[in-house]
Amino acid sequence: MHHLVEQMKQKDIRALARAITMVENDHPDKLDMLSDVFASQKNARYIGITGSPGAGKSSLVNRLISHIRNEDKTVAVIAVDPTSPFSGGALLGDRVRMNEHFTDNGVYIRSMATRGSLGGLARATKDAVRICDAYGFDVVIVETVGVGQSELDIMKIVDTTALVLTPNSGDVLQIFKAGIMEIADLFVINKADLDGVGKLKGLLKELVMMTSKEAQKTPIVKTITTENKGIDTLWEKINEHYDYLYRTEEGRKRRKQQQELEVYELIREEIWREVKTYAENERLTIKADDDPYKQAQAIYQQWKQERGRLNDA
Amino acid sequence: MHHLVEQMKQKDIRALARAITMVENDHPDKLDMLSDVFASQKNARYIGITGSPGAGKSSLVNRLISHIRNEDKTVAVIAVDPTSPFSGGALLGDRVRMNEHFTDNGVYIRSMATRGSLGGLARATKDAVRICDAYGFDVVIVETVGVGQSELDIMKIVDTTALVLTPNSGDVLQIFKAGIMEIADLFVINKADLDGVGKLKGLLKELVMMTSKEAQKTPIVKTITTENKGIDTLWEKINEHYDYLYRTEEGRKRRKQQQELEVYELIREEIWREVKTYAENERLTIKADDDPYKQAQAIYQQWKQERGRLNDA
Question: Is domain B40-248 given the CATH code 3.20.20.80 in the classification?
Fold first, then answer.
């Protein structure tokens, strides 16, 4: 067993942090470590919280952490934050939360930053979720800012995704975005003390009516994080959704689809690493003025032939 | 030369449409066609317009089209639209615009929809831009909704990116997102007749002061599309930026970086296609309950050995 996974079994939180750093940096040995992580999973509940910047996701998650802790469950939060050009890392919310839950061993909060590559962050986040599961957290929350294509991709690993909206923010347009209706298992109207909450709820209700195919209509929960209101209902609805998933075949179907996707994703990543190393070792240079389509074909063919020779030897 | 590229040289607009469909559907023969497209490029100016839903990008682009046409230049617009769960395709704005410019042969508007795969849309959009260039349009505008990771990726192909913001929309948070400060060459405050325009402009100015490394500070332009105000200034600033790019080494540097990225992207795509076809032909099934990391390694190794045998034969 990989030493980090071994150490995680001893509840060494630094080993957990190091394992996440390993996937974040796309370490060449990560697959062996992740295999051991996979085998050590303890069936944590995975929850996704997504929504626009300013929707109050961080405060909501903070309240949710306290609520979950009151039920004597442990919780890890993977916050997928945009890289600020100023801080060069995670944004605000984090440190605030860190303070509140800092002394609680039952809470782990980690933010993951973009490492540039499209898809790389989504991949690393999914691995980080499994790592937290293997460590033994009961609940793993993935919090993402925005609902772009890569955020949608991240959400495919969770059991229940809550989309956080606020009244009068133009946020509702988010749900027209590609894939949002498919991934939102739950709508949260946060800052529900603001004007326009009735209008937003009405609109959401209509949308749910029009689009829900399942017998289970997508629930709409109102929360006011500043007053700690609605958090209990939110947790209840999350649990109901989870129960629904595993009472029906839905949950299993989801995990199966996700698994297939992941295997291909991992293969693609492996090949990519290999071709890139090959191109670097061979000092293949890309010419800015030449046809990129021909250059791509040439490098690929060259790599394949080289691989063939290696296999032959 | 590929027959579609041949036909495009004869100004056959249906050939242009077909060529774009080919990259949208990721047709296996697309690389040969794209090589001919690459060779036929005529050095069009590439402009990106991005911003949140509701920022008024479509109307702005519409005004910009009219302005560019008044200068006797032709213009193509590639609108990267979210797929609505209702229409199953492009959103509203499009048909409105189509009406206005429908009879004008100097205008081509095409929206591209998500085909599911992460990165696939960005790839197809870049190819579509080159196709419009090869056809002979003087200006190619890429309009994207949102500023997620894949939108940022799309913007890497354009010369000048304008980020459209509106007063009091919470939009300004967008610019804290990963990479936005790096890609925005121009800020547009649209709906500049609304309250809060002074505040937004003040904030943007501060940000520009803090972050612009170049001698060239990022310009801020105010527009009111409903009154056709500010469009001339916007076009002027776009041209100034373009001049700056090609007066300095900046433009060449950008295209070179983009080219390198593209070659790797294309290689990755090629390999992916091959592995996927292999897995399908061999009916390799992915087991939902088994370790995805081990399964990925196994399929990859198997494919490599198979490749070795093929090369050997």
Answer: no
